[in-house]
Structure formats: C-alpha cells, structure tokens
Amino acid sequence: MATAPLSGLQFHYYDDDFSDPWKPTSPILMIHGFARNGGFWRAWVPYLARNHRVIRIDQRGCGRSADPGPGYQYQIDDLAGDAVALLDVLGIDRISLIGESSGGVISAWIAAHYPHRVSTLILVSTPLRLKGHNNEVKSAGYSGAQQAIAALGMKEYWLQSRGRGGQLTGDRSRDEYFASLFAMTPPHIGQAFWELINASGVDIEPLLPKIAARTLLLSPGASFGTTEADQQKIVDLVPNAKRIRFPDLTHEMYYVAPDRLAPEVAAFLDSE
After folding, report:
1. Is 161 part of a structural domain of the chain?
2. Count of domains for the chain
C-alpha cells in the first residue's frame, strides 16, 4: 500500500508486482466502481501480478484516500483526471486499464481522451451511461439510494441492496468482509456518488469510436446497471473490441466470481 498527493488530496493505492525483474512488462491500473475501493480487486492480483505491475487506486473519498468533504460534487473528468495524475506521479506513460461498473465508465473516458496513454482497455459490467440506475435494487426499499444510505449506513446499505439484486456470494463471512470494505467509504461520499449518477447524465456512447486501445468487454447475464443491448452497442462502437459473456453471472461478478473473470483478462493481456 502507498500514497500519493494528487489534486490537493492524499490518495491511497495498492501496488503489486511479482513479475520477473529482468523481463519487460506492461503495468495495469484497476479502477473500482461506485464508492468502493481497490481492495475489492484483491482476488485478481494473483492472476495479474505474476506478469504485470498491478496498481489499484482508491478514488477520492473512497477507501483510504482523503475525503474531499461534505458537499463535494463529483465530476467524471475529476475522477478520470485523478487516475491520469497518479500515472504521472508514478512515471507511467502507457497503461492497461481495467474498470468495473462506473469505474469502467471512467476507464472508457480516459481511453477516449488520452488514447496515447492506454494500450489495453478492460470493461467489466460497464454501463453505457450512468443516469437512470437509481432503481428498486439500488434504493434498497427506500425512496432512493441516497435516502437508503442515510438510513442504513454504508455497510448495511451494501448488504441490503446487494441482497435485493442477487449480488451476494452466499458465504456470510465473505459478504460481511466486502460490506466492511464498502463501509470504509463515508456515507456522504456514497451519497455524492449517487448525486453524480442521478444528475450528470454521463454518457460514453459518443466517446466509444474514439477509443484506440485493444478492448475486452466482460458482460454479465443480468445487471441492474446495464442491458444486453447496451453491452452489444459498446462492443459494436469500439473499433477493436472483443466481448465475453457470462450469462449465469450478475452485475457484481468481478468480486463474486474473480476466479472466472481474472484468468480471461490475464490471457487477453498476455496475448498482445
């Protein structure tokens, strides 16, 4: 674990590399989704770090990264800019990007705006647009997700919303672990992320034809954040894209089934 000053805040990131020092390797940056943190990617590291340097950022306000404070308004370009700034601090010119859910939206935004910085793009359960996903599952039985977070707190919100969406693993200890990871992010940050989702209308469709990176899309069979039609549109619009479907898995498959997803990503990265 390490920290770096970015955009006036102290950012936390994980940095793992078990590759052979005498061999050239390409680094990876992993970007988590809504209000989570780099710890959610933990089970992927053994598959990726043998041949790559693997960096997992905690986005601003999330995990162990500094809290920008109550009232902060998230913007997609700020979140993307933080990731690019970390690459600059680490002296990394070109990266393989892996993003899940809203982290995939951020990753696609980076790949479109900084094509010279991204060699490979991996999108996991990535929606075409953010607005409109404050649905019954995400609201956990309340009038909205922000109200649910205020009433339940982050840990219980994770358990109830994921339970409604069929996103829990079925292993109580494992589910408690990930709920506790999620609870590292303060409630006002979770609410601020929802404000971004509800108000911004972030739409990556116009950006997709601009992505030059070799791209792999991992699509769930059922999702509260994306649709089959949108997944197909992403792979159709990105010039050099491949898609792998997981029809029996749901939106949160990146942490529910890492032993199925991570080997596919490792094989794709190592096929360059």
Report:
1. no
2. 1
Q: How confident is the model at residue 185, as a pLDDT? A: 98
pLDDT recorded at residue 180: 98
Residue range 157-175: average pLDDT?
89
Q: Which residues of 192-209 are buried (b: 16+ CB within 10 A; e: fewer)?
A: bbbebbbeeebebeebbe
- Smallest Cα–Cα separation from 99: which of 24, 181, 36, 6? 36
DSSP per-residue string spanning 163-188? HHTT-S-S-HHHHHHHHHHHTTS-HH
Domain contains 222? yes
3-state secondary structure at position 119: strand
Rounded distance between C-alpha atoms, residue 4 and residue 153, angstroms = 28
Flag whether 176 is in a domain: no
> What range defines the domain where residue 76 resides?
2-132+202-269
Block residue for tokens 């590399």: 17
The pLDDT of residue 121 is above 80? yes
**Residue 244: strand pairing partners:** 218
